[in-house]
Amino acid sequence: MIKWGAISMVLVMMLASCNGAKDGETSGREDLTAKKLLQGIWLDDETDIPLMRINGDTIYYIDPQNLPVYFKVVRDTIYVRGNTPTAYKIDRQTEYSFWFHSLSDEIVKLHKSDNPGDTLAFSSQETEITPSIQEIIKKDSVVVYKGTRYRGYVYINPSQMKVIKTAYSEEGISMDNVYYDNVIHICVYEGRNQLYGKDITKKMFANIFPEEELNQTILADMNFMGVDEKGYHYEATLQIPESSVYHLVSLTIDSDKQLHIKMVE
């Protein structure tokens, strides 16, 4: 089962942006003069709020959860090489003014800061990483099949494995947020006898998801679904962080203790 919501439009934007950025970035020589003009802190024209700081070939955003990204300027376009390569057409560029077209076709108008105090908004150089859970979550369920009592356990463990998700601001600017993924241990018992046990990671689903899609999800949840003649059944939830978009995946352990994985129809 797949919940889409507004993600379809985001995916279209990502694919179009990625393809165009890859082609255009390699089609001409980098404009080092334009890159030099971009050095400094840039504020939104309407609000005077700092949006980004450019230092060398790197863009730093004001939100500490956003990853810094490499960029280059070729002709009239700025190419940002984040998790999803993105290209923005430059409408105007001077030493103190920078206008460009966002992915939502809005003109983002910025001006360079002359206030030394604005550097304080970018004082933290470390990217904040959001864990999907704070501590181990334990779940267990009991089922009876043909007179035998089985207990299925789930242990959802936080990990240090990073997931980078491309998000989009209201103005149509792509930004990369970082999250920690989970490792989920599953096991089935008959009384005190362990019949099966295994650590499940997101990489185990690589055969049923496109790489780009899998990379932006976390292994969010797992449930013991029951026992029948085919084996022991679990259901995993892979979710795009901080969204309602998720996929359900069926895990079946057969009589030979082989794990079979498929999408839930």
Automatic annotation (TrEMBL):
Domain of life, per lineage: Bacteria
InterPro entries per record: DUF4738
Key words, A-Z: Signal
Signal peptide feature range: 1-21
A Pfam family of this chain: DUF4738
Name listed for the protein in its UniProt record: DUF4738 domain-containing protein
Organism the protein comes from: Bacteroides stercorirosoris
